[in-house]
Specification:
Helix content is 56%, strand content 4%. It is mainly alpha-helical.
Length: 163
């Protein structure tokens, strides 16, 4: 964990040119790439970490269980509707995330957390986290990761590279 934190601190996780690449003995792969020994693993395609964060207070809701409690209670109240979705893809197409968001705003308002100052990217990330957590109750980890991965920078970049 210290190594990961160090990479974050010195910019290696955010900027490709901040990575220290040690070029040892060269090896050619069957697909024409050159790999170098002695320096660890460095991907061919660099995807910087997403440094946008949730607003102050959301971390507290996650840490104290309020976030998950809200999602669970929402699921219980809306289980019949959520269980009608035939797949995660169906859920993503048809689910009314605006209603989920509206109820979440009301719920966290009780904890004196207000999201008036969040930007669009923060709202989108938080809505995705809510949708993913809710889908986990219906489809377990498959639901969670399918929703989270639909907008994950690393996943979408990897998919585009494979095409």
């Amino acid at each position: 964990m210290d190594e990961i934190w160090e990479r974050y601190q010195n910019g290696e996780a955010m900027y490709a040119d901040s990575n220290k690449i040690q070029k040892g003995e060269a090896f050619a792969t069957t697909c024409g790439d050159t790999l170098y020994g002695g320096g660890g693993i460095m991907p061919n395609v660099f995807v910087p970490i997403d440094t946008s964060s949730y607003p102050m207070g959301i971390d507290r809701l996650v840490a104290n269980g309020s976030f998950n409690n809200f999602v669970y209670l929402y699921y219980l109240r809306n289980r019949n509707q959520i269980d009608k979705y035939t797949s995660v893809a169906d859920y993503l197409r048809k689910f009314d995330k605006d209603q989920l968001w509206k109820e979440f705003i009301g719920y966290i308002g009780k904890d004196a957390i207000h999201l008036d100052s969040i930007n669009g990217q923060q709202k989108d990330r938080l809505q995705t986290r809510l949708e993913a957590s809710l889908s986990k109750f219906r489809w377990r980890n498959n639901g969670l990761y399918e929703v989270l991965n639909k907008e994950d920078n690393v996943i979408t970049r990897a998919q585009s590279q494979m095409k």
